[in-house]
Amino acid sequence: MQAVAAANAIATQRSRRRPRGTFQPERPHPSRGGNAYSDDIRHDVLTRYHMGLPLQNVELDILRAAQPPAYPCMQTCMNFIERERQYGHCRAKHATGNHQAEREIEGEPLVRLALFRLVHPEAIIDEVRAFLFNMDQTVAPYSTTAVVRAEKLLRLTQKKSSTTCERAYWQVNLHKRQRFWTNNYPFGRADIRTRDMIDMDEAGFKIEATNPSWGKSVSWSRCHTDGSYNRERKLNCMMGISADPAINMSWHDVWPQCEGGTTLYRVYVFFERIIDWLDAHHP
Description:
Layout: H1 2-15, H2 39-50, H3 58-65, H4 74-87, H5 108-119, H6 125-135, H7 144-153, H8 171-182, E1 198-206, E2 234-242, E3 250-256, H9 264-281
Antiparallel strand pairs: 1-2, 2-3
């Protein structure tokens, strides 16, 4: 009985054994994106070419018209001939895949990418690729996906960019900023609550900046709208807003550029207006 049980166990294990191989799927014909034409057909094309025999006649046309075609088309024959001129042979290439897109930015190129983004955060991805290639031209240019993966590794996120005036980095202005954030009133705001502050800023707007350039309409109708057509006009705006969530307070002043820019006198008048309003409504 023990021998029978052992035999049954062995038979069960053999029935569960993995297959020793799997059959290959049927691959399409070379003319349909399958394996390349054999070396015999390639050599036959080159032999006909060197002997001056035609590559297109009734016999070959019949072979090409078969299903599947038994002879390469004329364009494929010309590719064989051009490859022999360039490389001295017409052997088929071995498919290696798109390994260029799978390369990762590591080591020193990754450090260069981090430094480049630190200096030029507004650069587009093609400028990043050009920078990395110019720094080391012995390496093929990195793909777009490789740069995206490297930036994710550095935890870089895409956000709306802005431009800071160069004068903000002058030593005198940096000193003023440091004093404003660290000193107490009246020389700074270190002892002032945020809700007691009023944020004020000014900006200039051009007409073309707010003029929409895209729209939708039927194919036989023009897409347009009525409006001013003057690229020299500019509108200035000065605004102030309170940081107190319990009190809704805001002030603004708008004037065209022809009346002048944002002068010190205009800012002074705007401050006086806010102070007078606070004295009357929130003494």
